[in-house]
């Protein structure tokens, strides 16, 4: 029996209850947004393939899933369960089980409900901010097969941001689709990438010297800090509360985290690079959109900044910037064919240090600047 440490049903119920409604538009307008996002996702797929040389494969490549905020919460809970429940079972086995002693089962059940409430509060906050994502981990379909992944776009958030920024709606929607379609191409067109990321995540959690209950307590503390911040509580700048990333305990974990951070910085930066670099012939107002969107990313109230730090969102923003800079500088130096050698194998991925210094990666992996004579890589293989 699974050692359930998070009551996922409570997480969904709490998240969908707390999440704010999206922008007020008519039902007819909502249908139009959904139809256009689906069409633009298909259009973006072709632009990404032509620009990057990586082709998304599989049946998932033909459609995007459009959701509202509660739909995003439910989808992410499904993904968390796929990844976390088997890991928690393995951690519990390693430590001789959970909830031992008198009343242990009751304590565990109460704790899982509390953690479910806190997880739901975090998901409610995030659900109003995420524009889209490529979901790597999905429950098996009715045939028992695990899907490769799913491209999901959160329609009300896209509408909210385009209204807030005052940008061309078609251009903005296509721009967002380009980023997410790049992720679909990466994770379906590069055969080993998805399993590599999953293996690193698994290794990271299993390398912890913290027992599962302590890990859940850290999650609870972080969630409580976020909820306090949302309710208006000020964080002491001289004594900030620990965020999720502060749970790293061991040198082995730090080493794995460096590898995981490097690959996620690469894929996020690649997505950011592609959405801008396909050019104004595809998204005519791309420069205006990027300038306004970046101003929104960099801004925010003290409350927003505190929550971003607690949840590790600031780290993700740095990943976009560092990764995009790595891709831009590498493509400028050795061209797209040279850059695509990054997808050859896990050994050709840049290290954390090479992300910051692309010439070191070029020297190690490409080895020569006379790439024009080299045959182009096969799509998705680098």
Largest sheet: 3 strands, mixed
CATH architecture of the largest domain: Up-down Bundle
Strand order of the largest sheet: 1-3-2
Following the backbone from N to C, one meets helices and strands in this order, namely: HHEHHEEHHHHHHHHHH
Count of DSSP-assigned helices: 14
How many domains make up the coordinates? Answer: 2
Would you report the number of β strands?
Answer: 3
- Which of globular, elongated, flat, extended, rod-shaped describes the shape? globular
Q: What is the name of the CATH class of the largest domain?
A: Mainly Alpha
* Mean pLDDT across all amino acids: 80
CATH homologous superfamily of the largest domain - what is it?
Zincin-like metallopeptidase, N-terminal domain
Round the Cα radius of gyration to an integer and report it. Answer: 21 Å
According to CATH, what is the topology of the largest domain?
Lysin
- Look at the helices and sheets and give the structural class: mainly alpha
Task: Please report the distance between the alpha carbons of the first and last residues.
Answer: 43 Å
**Residue share in β-strands:** under 5%
- Helix fraction, binned, reads 55-70%
> Uncertain spans, ≥5 residues at pLDDT below 50?
98-107, 370-382
